[in-house]
Write a structure and sequence with these properties.
With about 400 residues, the protein is mostly beta strands. Helices cover about 0% and strands about 45% of the residues. The relative contact order is 0.16. The N terminus is likely disordered.
Amino acid sequence: MLLFMKKTSFLTNVCISARILGLALTVCTLFTVTSCTNDDNGLIPIGNGEGNYGQFQTEEKYNNETQGMFILCEGSYGKNNSTLDYLNFTTGLYYPNVFESGFMKDSKKMGDTGNDIKYYKGKLWIVINASNKVIVVNPVNGKIEKEINNIINGRHLVYYNGFVYVSAYYNAKFNEVIGKGTVYKINADDYTITGQVEVGYQPENMDIVKDRLYVANSGGYNGSNDIGYDHTISVIDINTFKVIKTIDVKSVNLNELKADKNGNLWVTSQGKYDPTTYSMVGANITEISTEGEILNHFDVSAANLVINDNNLYYTVSSSKQPVLLNVIDTNTGKIIEKNLLKNNSPSQLPIRTCAAAINPSNKNIYLADAKDYTSAGEIFVYDKNGKYLSTIKNNLIGITPAHICFIP
């Protein structure tokens, strides 16, 4: 039983980070498997007011284990217009802006620039970057359990063994000589910050392997100053909550980081900003062992990493061609599909992919499109073989839908 439903009728998680001329426009992705229960099939939303709150029908109606998904829309930096949408797979109904439309028990604006969302220990954990906070929401009754403030310039989160870890730029300001970033440790039961450790410059995505937290450092704000881009992964011992090692990836401006089933790490480099072409150059994907050995290297401008079973999916975007969705076999380290979406027409492909996710039940693929970053986004849906199924679009969808969280 989940968010936004009556007591007798319950509701049944790419990132590209483009830093152009100092504006950190973060377009990230999240693939999170979560769990809950559904007690009946009524599915009637409630809230503080009356009406349908802009809900609309989609073709995404499934009778399977995944009940729905939350879509965190970043909004526009400085505009205080981040939103949270919900797609119900049982009914196919899409609910825009559930956080402040009346569904939430404590309806209010989320804040400035939603940057990550995950589900852990029965709660939704939402990072609001420019508002310097993490919001914890009970998805059963819509109550805001806690707003954890003083998470300075938070970016991404992971959870492990009763704690939630949040990476943060901390005191970062573009093109200035600044301090390093930090990772916060939060008790998932009482929401208290129990630790804080310094890592590299402008830390981004993280993952955990065998009691070690691996943090990708970007240094994206330092491209034009004496420090320069970061090229390291900070390794934190979960038990002592101290940095025990720093891995030099040899590539700069790191962003995505995912661990595969073999315990190896896949990390993306966004490359360096070239002021002559107004673009990022030298982007790549690198596979490394947890000890820092470089296992594979691919010179591609990749974003939106999703690992499903033994396959790693990533998107490639450019202004000159449609979005590509490529696949790497994590066992062999070989690219096994260079364009999974090749049989679809241009109208069936996103323009600016800002999120990618795979439904854990039916393996459908979701690619969120930011469009122009100022108006409603869209979500393109494909089957596991890359065949186009539908497009979720409506002028009520949030701006820059960039993080997806599934609810099985």
